[in-house]
From TrEMBL:
<dbReference type="InterPro" id="IPR032106">
    <property type="entry name" value="2-oxogl_dehyd_N"/>
</dbReference>
<dbReference type="InterPro" id="IPR042179">
    <property type="entry name" value="KGD_C_sf"/>
</dbReference>
<comment type="similarity">
    <text>Belongs to the alpha-ketoglutarate dehydrogenase family.</text>
</comment>
<dbReference type="InterPro" id="IPR011603">
    <property type="entry name" value="2oxoglutarate_DH_E1"/>
</dbReference>
<dbReference type="Pfam" id="PF16870">
    <property type="entry name" value="OxoGdeHyase_C"/>
</dbReference>
<dbReference type="GO" id="GO:0004591">
    <property type="term" value="F:oxoglutarate dehydrogenase (succinyl-transferring) activity"/>
</dbReference>
<dbReference type="Pfam" id="PF00676">
    <property type="entry name" value="E1_dh"/>
</dbReference>
<protein>
    <recommendedName>
        <fullName>2-oxoglutarate dehydrogenase E1 component</fullName>
        <ecNumber>1.2.4.2</ecNumber>
    </recommendedName>
</protein>
<dbReference type="InterPro" id="IPR029061">
    <property type="entry name" value="THDP-binding"/>
</dbReference>
<keyword id="KW-0560">Oxidoreductase</keyword>
<dbReference type="GO" id="GO:0006099">
    <property type="term" value="P:tricarboxylic acid cycle"/>
</dbReference>
<dbReference type="GO" id="GO:0005829">
    <property type="term" value="C:cytosol"/>
</dbReference>
<dbReference type="GO" id="GO:0045252">
    <property type="term" value="C:oxoglutarate dehydrogenase complex"/>
</dbReference>
<dbReference type="InterPro" id="IPR001017">
    <property type="entry name" value="DH_E1"/>
</dbReference>
<dbReference type="InterPro" id="IPR031717">
    <property type="entry name" value="ODO-1/KGD_C"/>
</dbReference>
<feature type="domain" description="Transketolase-like pyrimidine-binding">
    <location>
        <begin position="592"/>
        <end position="785"/>
    </location>
</feature>
<comment type="function">
    <text>E1 component of the 2-oxoglutarate dehydrogenase (OGDH) complex which catalyzes the decarboxylation of 2-oxoglutarate, the first step in the conversion of 2-oxoglutarate to succinyl-CoA and CO(2).</text>
</comment>
Length: 934
């Protein structure tokens, strides 16, 4: 802009004191989005250089100089109450500096060990201001204190109280101006000071008494026993009780909590209302005889009801192994199931709370995954309250320099613009204020929010550990440091809120409750109707009778529904061809392929009023282009789902392409199915070997959750598996690993080989009342194999065959060798045998490898009692696949005198070869070996 034009524009602008807030609004709008202001303002703001330490800030002196220059123009001046003052803009920048960086000088560490440099941006001198300006009055812009101007001295004090007290608020990284303004209003309007009644303060004190009292009681009664004490982080108890009470008052009906073992026993007794006498029994070695193996007491979950002014709130503390943060997606999945059951899309009725350790939240990748999925359509739950019990030392001997690279352990939360409220754990009133703000923010904006409870750990990692060996300076401080209860009691006594006699009385009363083994939570109530009814699914075995048949007429009706596309919905030509073929399958002109049978299974389930939920990285389309449950209009990208249009009043059908994660998504779906037994829930791996990334979920939840915790789960997992010459990483779903996890009839491992089999297998998972996990080695090339087809009549039987016998017309008395196999290799054996015209070999498919169907296999072998040669044929290397885990089952079913040999690849460190020519050679060899009669 020419200098004359610029001067003319400046002269026509309105840079007056009354418009100081307007200037600030313009500047902040520019910071959020440079295109949101006019070109003239943008040109001025662009000339201002950045200040160190803030990506979206600018050096205050430059801002001041520029506006001072404008103020010196003869036609216009910056006018403030009391006269001309170019320092106005610097005052606004001072306010902004405290909002950005006040947390870096906040009083957060109860032990006073943090060595934090003073932030220059928070000093008056950095803004060319001084105490000489304290009596001058300035416009304070958007500072939410209920007035337009303040004396600088009062303003500076208010800023330090608000942003550098016991709460350090990080929120200026949030991209939404509305959310930032909301937080500013909540903090600045009360200068980060909680406004509490005497009754509320007494309730806080009761929480601290309970937290401290239980730990001391356990320490005296069971010295040396592991309890992973909460001592030092005592404020967690009043915090959780405040969260639940406030959530219930605002309409929540359920709260689901996930946490690791630190402080878990305290939460169980003092929040959940577990009777302390039961906990003492567990310390004494008594246990619930119902559970097979059980688990240690600091992994156990619990459920109860908690009375609030808004009604009873159902509480659920999720069972959790020691694998740190893995419980977070489990909690989110459980919450999503509860929300779906309540038909609540916003998340108002169920609140998730996850409690983290400082090292774990920074170190465990699943935390990033759950933050990433928090707003995704398939996984959103209306925001999660994430509490960090920050004991500053990690789980054993770690220091922050070893456990993270950022200033705070909570840096990861910024990836989703979550506000972070750091709070001093020794100031329980500040903790309560941070808790109130966090919950209200979550309910207002439906987003995650983090409370970093900065505290300490009074003992070692466990009570037998000696922390002074590795943290000598910290533990010198800890030994002399009073407990949060002592600090707060002195404060209440001093201000006259509670007399010492009253605080002593409350402590004595809590000790009495423990001595008598009574519930310590006044708000505890016995559970009512909040939980889902699991009784129809209890006490069932694999072979229990169930209504499995489906009529042929119904199948034809459903087939027409799933193959129909509205005329105005223009799909891709390849998809149109698939649906044209499905229409022919519905009419009986073609046999059904895999995709049609699978979609028919889902249709039959939703038609019966049950729900279907499928997630995976390509689940809508199917990784191998076979499902196409979601049809994308090529004209406008709109979506049409035939399975959502089966009939009026049908069960819900939800299929979601998931975030690119395995462990968090699988854990989410596990959590979903432990909270919702009805319907069909499926997680599908893009390739079966991708399940490796989720192995902790298989190991610690899916395979053992029922035995450890009595938690039933009907989750179905589709893991594409099959050797197609695509290299070692896209061949094997590691069948051997799942078989190694099998015991006590804990889950099902199936390898279906026909469309009818997958149809009836999926239906069985819903229709049969038993709820146990189903792991499926699902196919790739079989999705379109010309022999892998079925008729509607095959589907209508409703029976999944655990064993499928010989299908060709082979005289049993002529058979000299019987080949057992599972999966794709069956068709290669079948085709080669037919090509060889061998009539002395029978092929039997084992479609369910666990629980092993010994009786059904023996039934098929009844006609081959004369046979001596039996072979197990597999595509996988000898040390993988089913051979090592299942050969004892095969041998147990053989007739007397029969012997079993192996046909397959040699043992290998890799799952498969990487060269197609080698793959083909190996495949031909194993088929030949299996069919060679000796």
């Amino acid at each position: 802009m020419p200098e004359g034009a610029m001067k003319a524009w400046i002269e026509s602008s309105h840079l007056s004191g009354a418009n100081a807030a307007y200037i600030e609004e313009l500047y902040e709008s520019y910071l959020d989005n440079s295109q949101s202001v006019s070109a003239e303002w943008r040109e001025i703001f662009q000339q201002l250089p950045k200040v160190e330490g803030a990506d979206v800030e600018y050096r205050h002196s430059e801002i001041r100089d520029e506006f001072k220059k404008l103020a010196q123009e003869p036609h216009k001046t910056l006018v403030v109450s009391g006269g001309s003052d170019a320092k106005q803009v610097k005052v606004l920048q001072l306010i902004n500096a405290f909002r950005f960086r006040g947390h870096q000088n906040a009083n957060l560490d109860p032990l006073g060990l943090w060595q934090r440099e003073k932030v220059r941006d928070l000093q008056l001198s950095h803004h060319d201001l001084s105490e000489n300006d304290f009596d001058r009055e300035f416009n304070i812009g958007s500072l939410a204190v209920g007035q337009e101007s303040m004396k600088l001295g009062d303003l500076y004090k208010a800023l330090k109280t608000t942003y550098c007290g016991s709460i350090g608020a990080e929120y200026m990284h949030i991209t939404s101006t509305d959310e930032k303004r909301w937080i500013q209003q909540r903090l600045e309007s009360v200068q980060s000071q909680a406004i509490l009644s005497v009754e509320e303060k007494e309730e806080i004190f009761k929480g601290l008494v309970a937290a401290d009292g239980l730990e001391k009681y356990l320490g005296a009664k069971f010295p040396g026993a592991k309890r992973f004490s909460l001592e030092g982080g005592d404020s967690l108890i009043p915090m959780l009780k405040q969260l639940i009470t406030r959530a219930g008052t605002q309409g929540a009906k359920e709260v689901v909590i996930g946490m690791a073992h630190r402080g878990r026993l305290n939460v169980l007794v003092n929040v959940m209302g577990k009777n302390p006498s039961k906990l003492f029994d567990e310390f004494g070695g008594k246990h619930d005889e119902i559970l097979s193996s059980g688990d240690v007491k600091y992994h156990q979950g619990y459920s109860s009801d908690f009375v609030t002014p808004g009604g009873n709130v159902h509480l659920a503390l999720a069972f959790n192994p020691s694998h740190l943060e893995i419980v977070n997606p489990v909690v989110m999945g459980s919450v999503r199931a509860r929300l779906d059951r309540r038909d609540c899309n916003a998340g108002d009725l169920v609140l998730p709370i996850t409690i983290h350790g400082d090292s774990a939240i920074a170190g465990q990748g699943v935390v990033q995954e759950t933050f990433n999925m928090s707003q995704a359509r398939a996984f959103k739950v209306g925001g999660t309250i994430r509490i960090v019990v920050n004991n500053q030392v990690g789980f054993t001997t770690s220091s922050p320099q070893d456990t993270r690279s950022g200033e705070y352990c909570t840096e990861i939360a910024k990836m989703v613009s979550a506000p972070i409220l750091h709070v001093n754990g020794d100031d329980p009133e500040a903790v309560i204020l941070a808790t109130q703000i966090a919950l209200d923010y979550r309910n207002e904006f439906k987003r995650d929010v983090v409370i970093d409870l900065v505290c300490y750990r009074r003992h070692g990692h466990n009570e037998a550990d000696e922390p002074s060996a590795t943290q000598p300076l910290m533990y010198k401080k800890v030994k002399k440091h009073p407990t949060p209860r002592q600090i707060y009691a002195e404060k209440l006594n001093a201000e006259g809120t509670l007399a010492k006699a009253r605080t002593d009385e409350l402590m004595a009363y809590y000790r009495k409750l423990l001595d008598e083994g009574q519930c310590t939570v006044e708000q505890w109530r016995p559970m009512t109707e909040h939980s889902v009814d699991w009784s129809p699914y209890l006490g069932h075995d694999w072979d229990d009778a169930y209504d499995h048949e489906i009529s042929l007429d119904k199948l034809k009706e459903l087939a027409n529904k799933v193959s129909s596309i509205p005329a105005d919905h223009h799909v891709h030509n390849r998809v149109r061809k698939i649906y044209d073929d499905r229409a022919k399958m519905a009419s009986g002109e073609k046999l059904l392929d895999w995709g049609m049978a699978e979609n028919l299974a889902y249709a039959s389930i939703v038609d019966a009023g049950e729900r279907v939920r499928i997630t995976g990285q390509d689940s809508g389309r199917g990784t191998f282009f076979h499902r196409h449950a979601v049809l994308h209009n090529q004209d406008d990208a709109s979506r049409y789902l035939p399975l959502q249009n089966i009939r009026e009043g049908q069960g819900p059908f939800d299929v979601h392409d998931s975030v690119l994660s395995e462990v968090s998504v699988l854990a989410f779906e596990y959590g979903y199915t432990t909270a919702e037994p009805s319907g069909l829930t499926i997680w599908e791996a893009q390739f079966g070997d991708f399940a490796n990334c989720a192995q902790v979920v298989f190991d610690q939840f899916i395979s053992s959750g029922e035995q450890k915790w009595g938690r039933l789960c009907g989750l179905t997992m589709l893991l594409p598996h099959g050797y197609e010459g695509q290299g070692p990483e896209h061949s094997s779903a590691r069948l051997e690993r799942f078989l190694q996890l099998c015991a006590d009839h804990n889950m099902q491992i199936c390898v279906p080989s026909t469309p009818a089999q997958v149809f009836n297998m999926l239906r069985r998972q819903v229709v049969r009342p038993m709820r146990r996990p189903l792991v499926v080695m699902s196919p790739k090339s079989l999705l379109r194999h010309p022999l892998a087809v079925s008729s509607l009549d095959d589907l209508a039987t409703g029976v999944f065959h655990n064993v499928i016998g010989e299908i060709d017309d082979i005289e049993p008395s002529n058979v000299e060798r019987v080949v057992f196999c599972s999966g794709k290799v069956y068709y290669e054996l079948l085709e080669q045998r037919r090509k060889n015209e061998q009539t002395n070999i029978a092929i039997i498919r084992i479609e369910q490898l666990y629980p092993f169907p010994e009786q059904e296999l023996q039934k098929q072998l009844a006609k081959y009692q004369h046979v001596k040669q039996f072979v197990w044929c597999q595509e996988e290397p000898q040390n993988q696949g089913a051979w090592y885990c299942s050969q004892h089952h095969f041998r147990a079913a053989l007739p007397k005198g029969g012997y079993l040999t192996y046909a397959g690849r040699a043992a290998s460190a890799a799952p498969a070869v990487g060269y197609m020519s080698v793959h083909v050679k190996e495949q031909q060899a194993l088929v030949h070996d299996a069919l060679k009669v000796e």
